[in-house]
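Case study B.
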Amino acid sequence: MQISLGPYVITEATKDDIWEVIRINEETLPEHYTLQFYYDIYENFPEGFLIAKLNGKAVGYIMNRIERGISSFNLSFVKKGHVVSIAVLEEHRNKGIGTTLLTTAMERMRNRGCDEVFLEVRVTNYDAIRLYEKLGFVKVRTIQYYYSDGEDAYVMARKL
Ligand code: ACO
Ligand code: ZN
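Model:
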């Protein structure tokens, strides 16, 4: 799989790309993870671990997990895609990379038999919330003090 978006190329990440994913994560988000965590995500859903590159250099990523649990919308037991983290380097934002990463990942979740997709986002992360709402996510609940600095999270979800 290779998606072209102007000069950008979006592909499945390889294990060797994980170092660049970590670099982008450290630059863009306060939530960091251990190397083992990245590998575990990769093993769980490799075709959902996507990277955006410009001239061979990573500028964005999305990583997701396939989970089973109670639906965000009713009391049924479902298979769901969990968007663990998405980020694009600041100088490459507003070019459609985030949208393409998320829509492609959702397509792969559907192919894996997921009924729905969900994520957590800081209640003040307006750019990200707008992107999710544009793609059909709705706020389903608030988790108080979700982040280590005390900020609340919205859980946002949509059916696939
Ligand atoms: N030209 C101009 N504008 C465009 C184009 C284009 N070709 N394509 C899309 N856009 C617009 C979109 O319509 C959207 O506008 P809107 O917000 O007014 O609706 C805006 O650009 C952003 O859309 P994208 O470009 O698709 O998204 P982007 O690549 O900027 O990535 C992201 C969005 C990932 C949220 C980015 O802002 C980011 O990395 N933020 C910091 C990290 C972060 O907060 N990540 C989310 C944390 S929550 C979690 O991970 C579950
Ligand atoms: Zn999460």
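The pocket of acetyl coenzyme *A (ligand 1) is lined by residues 28-29, 83, 85-88, 93-99, 119, 121, 125, 127-128, 130-131, 134 (CB under 6 Å). The remaining cases will be described in the next quarterly update.
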